[in-house]
Fold these 4 entries.
Entry 1:
Amino acid sequence: MNDAKLAETETRPPRKLSREARREQLIEATIETIARIGYARTTLTEVARVAGLSHGLVNFHFETKERLLTETLLALAEEYRRNWTEALEAAGPGAAARLDAMLRADFAPAVCSPGRLSAWCAFWGEAQSRPIYQEQCGSNDLAYNRRLEEICADLLRETGRAGDAERIARVLRVTIEGVWLDLMTMNAPYDRDEAQRTVYVAAEAFFPEAFNADGLRSQT
Amino acid sequence: MNDAKLAETETRPPRKLSREARREQLIEATIETIARIGYARTTLTEVARVAGLSHGLVNFHFETKERLLTETLLALAEEYRRNWTEALEAAGPGAAARLDAMLRADFAPAVCSPGRLSAWCAFWGEAQSRPIYQEQCGSNDLAYNRRLEEICADLLRETGRAGDAERIARVLRVTIEGVWLDLMTMNAPYDRDEAQRTVYVAAEAFFPEAFNADGLRSQT
Amino acid sequence: MNDAKLAETETRPPRKLSREARREQLIEATIETIARIGYARTTLTEVARVAGLSHGLVNFHFETKERLLTETLLALAEEYRRNWTEALEAAGPGAAARLDAMLRADFAPAVCSPGRLSAWCAFWGEAQSRPIYQEQCGSNDLAYNRRLEEICADLLRETGRAGDAERIARVLRVTIEGVWLDLMTMNAPYDRDEAQRTVYVAAEAFFPEAFNADGLRSQT
Amino acid sequence: MNDAKLAETETRPPRKLSREARREQLIEATIETIARIGYARTTLTEVARVAGLSHGLVNFHFETKERLLTETLLALAEEYRRNWTEALEAAGPGAAARLDAMLRADFAPAVCSPGRLSAWCAFWGEAQSRPIYQEQCGSNDLAYNRRLEEICADLLRETGRAGDAERIARVLRVTIEGVWLDLMTMNAPYDRDEAQRTVYVAAEAFFPEAFNADGLRSQT
DNA sequence: GATGAATGAGCCTTCATTCAT
DNA sequence: GATGAATGAAGGCTCATTCAT
């Protein structure tokens, strides 16, 4: 093979991809489509168009539209879980550092991009009338909640403060979800940095020794 | 209206309702339908069925499906606005009492029924890809936010605490929205009372002199 | 209304028909379509085209294609049953006259038209892999078979001949079905009259006192 | 074929079968598929699945689906023709023995298996709207009919009976086809033995000297 | 006002056919 | 030869919208 052909092979997308690669490509296109035109108006034709593929291929890799959407949600949930799990593993030993890692993880670009947030919102909106979506989200949330509660309980112990770890964890979690929603739906949205600061303001209210609006207090 | 007609109206269920009454009936059916089967699967036929009316009547009162949905959202937003506005007007003079009134208003049965919450979620999910919906929600939120910020600023002044009223107000608002979402989407949801306590836990964190988990502290 | 308009009203098909009338019209179009292009190539669009209606209307009156086809078969079966039942009721008292009535009924234009026969063939071909079709045909056949056996048994008694009524009835029935098939599938088909004579040749073989190739022997 | 190749063929399952063997394998799978799910629902994918081969191979050996089906019908027809031809060649010299051979041939397991009958029914059902299928069946039937008529004419001569050989032959043929159909489509089908007896009851009616319900009378 | 039959655009899905590997 | 990913035409079905009654 001469250089010209070699270059051509490298630059053009291959005609045939492995099953897994195509599935990921289509799921990515689905997220983008939902983010752009919403869940209700998402069609297989549009997903295929975004992916640059024929619409018949979508049904080849995912038997039905229903499955494509379910697996897209599953992929989002799995990506989200992996993100905070890994952040937690990389965190320092103290409860404050671990809480900081979890709060910060939710604002990592990988899970907090506009497209991802829009897709999440759309699925949330549909989930309340779809038990199958609730299950997908629910099991993930459950694990996240439990961890957050444990860490809050630890931090209360460490700081010697009184408080209800379950409710504090809940406030922190819904604050994150809430500023996410704001980032999506407000007409003049504040930016991600301000969103994160807002979360830390909440963290500071419960744990003033550990946090301020900028994040984790330096350990002096 | 003469006596004969008056008698007819009173004794028989009216065959012809006024324009406004029919519109409200259809909007109510729309909310219920969205809550039950979701925004994406809501059809005019189903709305008509829920309302107990004929198929064609929906298009007679609302020219298009788009208008029916938009006006439904408008009605929800207006109802919500009236609810907190009136609660605020009925509240006592102090900042703590007014904040309490606003927090409590969002859990009034009129705006916090399962059907209402589900419908809200559905519209939120769709709003991020529909500018027209964002406007409907946005203008309302804007007024609500401003009031909440004012009250928080007043309360900070009254209690002599330092703090960022804008971010505190934001945390309180998204906490309310967040527990609303939980009430809708969690597999084993806590109840409305626990949701409200969670909000007060957040309020207590910022204003311990004024609130505890049960609500407004008695003014001694 | 002036004469011109009156005439127009009478000649043009009405825009809206009753449910039952439309259903019959669509079933008739289905029979014609199956006869013309076969079961496998029958599409709702083609049925609608033959009926001169929009394809959406087919799904309005019959929820699915499956139901349209099933009800078409049901209508064919009901029409067939009514035809031989009424022929039997109009027949004379003797066994020979009743057998003659049944044999003759199957060649009545109402049930023996080319379109009807083609449609029957198509359903038979599909029935062997469709239990639901078999049931539709089966219950009808059962009643027909029982009657034919009874009459053959009566005729054997009357003529004092030995013979197996069940098998004789079966031969007569399948002979009718067979010449039907011939009328449909042979390249140079003989005509309906020759088909009927063939059946009478079979009848004559079993009951020479009662039949000859032209039909029932005149009672002398 | 040299020794090396022979050994390879015998010891290993051949990875590459000859064209002809693959074609037969696919035709057999087509018959089975049509028998199981019907003509209308037969797809190339299903045929390939039944044959245990890949999807694309079907189009490699038969350019189109149309050709696969046509050649399947051709194979069925050829198999059927060979069956009665060989039976006739093996039969004794008398007309009765030859007629018996033909009647018996149609119930030989090779052509009278459930799968074969189902496939025949399906093709018959479709043939009335497909000239190309009618030709395939027709030419075969024509030869079969002619032979049957000749034999019936011979037998009439031998027995000295009056009768119309053409119509008698037709009754015998359609009786066979009819009991075939019964074997396929009746809810509580009688068995092949009873089907064959029914045919002989018809034969006995025309030729009582030669046949009874059990078959050919022993020549005493 | 009210009804529900009728229309047709657009969607999901199937599947014969093609083709790169 | 053989595989299976990829394409696109066509079909069934849904549903917003229209309109005669």
Entry 2:
Amino acid sequence: MRRCTANRTFPSIDSVVKTLHDATVTTSQDPRPTMLDVARLAGVSLKTASRVLNGEPHVAAGTAAKVHTAAGQLAFRLNGIARELRQGARSTSVGLIISDVANPFYARVARGAERRLRSAGLQLITASSDEDADSERKLTAELLERRVCGLLITTCLSDHAHLEIERRLGIPVTFLDRPPVGIVADTVAIDNEVGARLAAQHLLDQGHRRIGLIGDLSRLTTHRERVAGFQSALTEAGVDDWERYVRADSHDSESAGRSVRALMALKQPPTALFTTNNRITIGALRALRDRARPPALVGFDDFELADLLGVTVISHAPEDMGAIGAGLLLARLDGSSAGAHSERLPVRLIERGSGERPPA
Amino acid sequence: MRRCTANRTFPSIDSVVKTLHDATVTTSQDPRPTMLDVARLAGVSLKTASRVLNGEPHVAAGTAAKVHTAAGQLAFRLNGIARELRQGARSTSVGLIISDVANPFYARVARGAERRLRSAGLQLITASSDEDADSERKLTAELLERRVCGLLITTCLSDHAHLEIERRLGIPVTFLDRPPVGIVADTVAIDNEVGARLAAQHLLDQGHRRIGLIGDLSRLTTHRERVAGFQSALTEAGVDDWERYVRADSHDSESAGRSVRALMALKQPPTALFTTNNRITIGALRALRDRARPPALVGFDDFELADLLGVTVISHAPEDMGAIGAGLLLARLDGSSAGAHSERLPVRLIERGSGERPPA
DNA sequence: CTGAAAGCGCTAACAG
DNA sequence: CTGTTAGCGCTTTCAG
């Protein structure tokens, strides 16, 4: 039986070189050479070409050389799609769903994950959900259809039972930053409660009693944990009306700025602020820029230039979140069936001035 | 002929639900249901199942319903790998190679590209090369093996003839930020020369004559174009010893800081600085932070918090670079065979204070 | 050390 | 409206 590729003319190296000087940029349709083409040109069987091209042992040196030459002449490139299909319909890429790559926090998470995965020979497909549930569901489905071998998710959904099926089918899922609901799975999050308590305690230590909290979307676990830590420090210190100065649901710096201005416009404005993520901190700084006597401020998440601006922050390592999450995924792919691992990344307070201002 | 899947037992919804309460997180091995499994359960042929699952017309409503029910029961998910293989061994993803996602400039480029591609139903695989040639070559090969349907590259190589072959084989490549060498291809870059001239002219207008330039790796086209623009403004203004204050090859903020300190330690230090990218500008700001009378400064690339820090910059839109580049790629995938398109993104100077300081 | 045949899961082409 | 057949490009199995 002859394949239809039998009569194919091979694009010669000459023809390739010639077009280097063409001015047109055509997306032309020379069929891509297959392994069979290489085998024929080398005068060996398909299997032998496969062996050589995959670096398998037990091939005569001369044979291998012929195959390599043929592959070079044809500009052959192994078809990873066909290989994956044959090997079990699972790809060598991992999907990462974050809310926005342009947010430095997530960019660093992605970077950490990419590094760790690459060291294991896997690729990372990053997608941004914009904190939208439908978008996250759609991206998840797309990535699974493309047969990623695992998923790293910074979820904005409130239920993850649908992913249990995937896990049973061999696709591990690791949750980053926010824990899953309705299933048990590996999770890497920040020690939010401790971090928030640290921030609040620091401000209390400077003598502040009216401390404002500008928070992210109130449905997010991170937000709730940070509020919990804040609350525990304040109530322990005997500040019972702490809720008066809590403003949640700022998911970008503009809305955070509005909340700050509203808070500062009260008759009894707060003397200090705890801004619960990098976007919010930046919004607050902008809103406060022209104040002669700005309130003290501690922000959750470190950010570039916080040093120059003298902003005291609760710092942690986003890269580690990505790297550790990727590591957990790799362990599952390796067959680990240990109980779900839940990791909390450590935080520390970095004093830079803004958090050390005393009450007005 | 019976397939080996014939005797497979389907994982029932019950068994799936049951495990929701298991505490173990096994990456177990239930085989994933195929379209044939769905077809059998629904009592229709494979092709009919395929039609329904792909939303093709000409299927009776009742038949479609049966198939959907079966698919739901089995938690079926179409195998994108098999589909792609059948449809021509080309995937629905585009590869993007940048130097580092954690650099906000590239993160914004990635964001722009992702948005544009997603609107066309494609996914983006982002990889960081760390400005390393071997790494870029390796990533390129990997992405091509995975049969991305196109490539967006911020290259650090000095020759791209090898990509000509890919183009002939139908894989378009668009160059971002830096033009290709040795081949003709679509390119989206910033108007570097104009931007640099704008920066230099602005500083000259404030009366500066000794203007330092802290630059990126000198082999980069972007660097050379920015130096050219800088030079043309200075020589036109009669400043002939402009090279005295040029320091190149700072690729991170630390080395930029060192160059700044070295420059400022001269007997006749510059009274103004032009920092040619966001990393360098930030390094310079850190190096200058404790100076009572810092030199004037204009930076290439806008960056977050430049407003608060009062840094005058040459601004442009990195998202557009990604989006326009992706658009050019999509046009090629659509069959466009127009001549290579070379786009220059506009720049503008934003005055924020640092660039308006007069000479000491 | 080398090769022939089967088939991964799907869709295209063509019947009915 | 529905089904049958072939085959995408590769790796696996088994036989030389």
Entry 3:
Amino acid sequence: MPLLLLKDLPRYECLLEGAKEFPDLDPSACEAFLHLLRTSDEVFSLVEKDLAVHGISHGRFGVLMLLWNPAQRRIDAAHADGDCPSGPRTPAELADAAGVTRATMTGLIDTLERDGLVRREPDPTDRRMMSVLLTEKAERFLVGISPAHFKLMTRIMAPLSESERKTLVRLLTKVLENASEIAVPATEPARARLSPAESPY
Amino acid sequence: MPLLLLKDLPRYECLLEGAKEFPDLDPSACEAFLHLLRTSDEVFSLVEKDLAVHGISHGRFGVLMLLWNPAQRRIDAAHADGDCPSGPRTPAELADAAGVTRATMTGLIDTLERDGLVRREPDPTDRRMMSVLLTEKAERFLVGISPAHFKLMTRIMAPLSESERKTLVRLLTKVLENASEIAVPATEPARARLSPAESPY
DNA sequence: CTTTTGTAGTTAGCCTCCTAACCATCCTCC
DNA sequence: GGAGGATGGTTAGGAGGCTAACTACAAAAG
């Protein structure tokens, strides 16, 4: 992700200092906000580097995980489906589940298909639609990579006790639910737009 | 950031279910991990959308903030520096502070310079180096945009009490410090590499 | 004083994300 | 049953990340 975040978070005193100049700056909110993004960034880049070692990006890995359903796989195995081990999904469903646009999903599926991890098949009933299916290669890949992936998550969260994890989840859920309700007004964007009051022109 | 993250986090029972199949899956660690990334993603995209309304990306905004030092500005004002209101920084310093590569910083500075928010000046003592300076336009822009930016942070963190914020910061700090110590082994990456044991070839 | 090593910045090429526009197909409704 | 709208998927073009390779310069080592 590296999303251009301050590597060294400002000390709390500096935030207090800033609050003097900017009355809108709430030091504790700002501190929590920065820590949230900074920590998430570090954790995310750790996972991304780990996945990169196995030659896959986080985005593509996410698509594979969405398509992968081990429980479903066992059921299908009984049917001897062979090459269709997990339930097929359409690009639109995948895009919605992953929270990216359909155009982005098209690109991801393109590269996954090029690498032989995924297959596109036209839908027999609706000719607009496609089904995206995992290949056996992808199945083997996921089985091979998952344990290390889970171990890394465990290792990252190791310093927190069970109750601390519960607390963290509870607090994050509060923030997430609140954030989901905040809708940024959709105004027309412009390049480094200046409001009339502050515009030099 | 939208980093292709599951929009609907799996329920805890599903994680328990998955743990049966994958002994390496620690349900509470996985839950905390996913909530951390999911929440951060939501919060981040909120901020990014807000900045987009003002025609600037998070990355460019971060560079401007790094170059901006209101306290320094006040000092310089006494010197009547005029067009050099904040301490100059080199691209390398900016890249380190922002946690991106120098190549990325070059690109960001390019676009900022194109938009007239930043200026490059050669260093008089070391001819390899450049100084990056905020323009007056950028100063006005930051003064105009900052209050809304701070308000948004406050609003995002509103559902947490002061003590909850402290707790959140404490838990996140634990995770961050731990994550910083985890070094992913640097092996040669490959495209969707399969280990010999699971390779079909 | 020359050579080697290291550092600052850029360039080139790739990947993933976005929006906007575009077809093709389905569905609804007159 | 044909027109208009909704939906699924792709394409085109842009931005911000990355690595790797390159240039220019500075500094250390011989």
Entry 4:
Amino acid sequence: MATHEPAALLRERGLRVTAQRLALLRAVAAHPHATADRIGDACRAELGTMSKPSVYDGLTLLVERGLVRRIQPARSPARYESRVGDNHHHVVCRSCGRMEDVGCAVGARPCLEASDDHGFVIDEAEVLYWGLCRDCRAT
Amino acid sequence: MATHEPAALLRERGLRVTAQRLALLRAVAAHPHATADRIGDACRAELGTMSKPSVYDGLTLLVERGLVRRIQPARSPARYESRVGDNHHHVVCRSCGRMEDVGCAVGARPCLEASDDHGFVIDEAEVLYWGLCRDCRAT
DNA sequence: CACCAAACGTTGACTCAGTCCAAACTAGCC
DNA sequence: GGCTAGTTTGGACTGAGTCAACGTTTGGTG
């Protein structure tokens, strides 16, 4: 389904459609929860060459425009994913760093209401579940 | 109240009581949500000298032993706080990075149940509310 | 088509948090 | 006093991410 194919998404956000950006979007979609480094590698495999700043700048731009989401768990470089807009969260393995998507148990917009917001206007609740994955528990 | 004064807490965890560790605990308590760097400064102000590795090693040890909690919001160095055990979360300002404590609206152990845990055994749910603080909204 | 400004992309140097390592020191214990 | 394990130190190092300056492409306009 091409209802929201990449090029259209970029244009909708006032961004030029470039080979790099398309490659970034494709790489993020193909490698969910990958680091900027790995995404850069994937783009380079496709395009031949892509500089480090281009990878970071491009990802930052896509994050700002809401096409990509950045997750930064403790003790790990930032990771990226293309599932945006729905309200899912992540489990992270304390041992190996593996990350998986999870829906939240508490309805559609869980935890979005803080009990005391200290005058903040909150636009996102980020939930990370920490634990051990099956493989790491086995060892 | 000295029901849980620092030296006793350290000994309970099988840790030697050293001037550095006491200073770390005091610094974390006195500067909630401070970075390792600021905590190091506070300790140095108290002790005269304390090396960078000592600050990091000490903090890591205290985190492992459950005396201090580490929070690592995206695009920010790790922060530390001494409120552990209770189930509170944090609001972070996207603009200035300010961080405040909040209780969660959804009962005592909110969101600790993921809808599908992918075989993970979860021991902690970390919730970050992102938004803009009053000061940054004013500008 | 020719020109121009704005947007893109590149290289290379740089910053900054955090870690590693080997050596020196200290405290408790025989 | 001498042992031994735990602590602390300085300094070098790593790795993620950013900056700045310079060249290149793109699309709009006359």
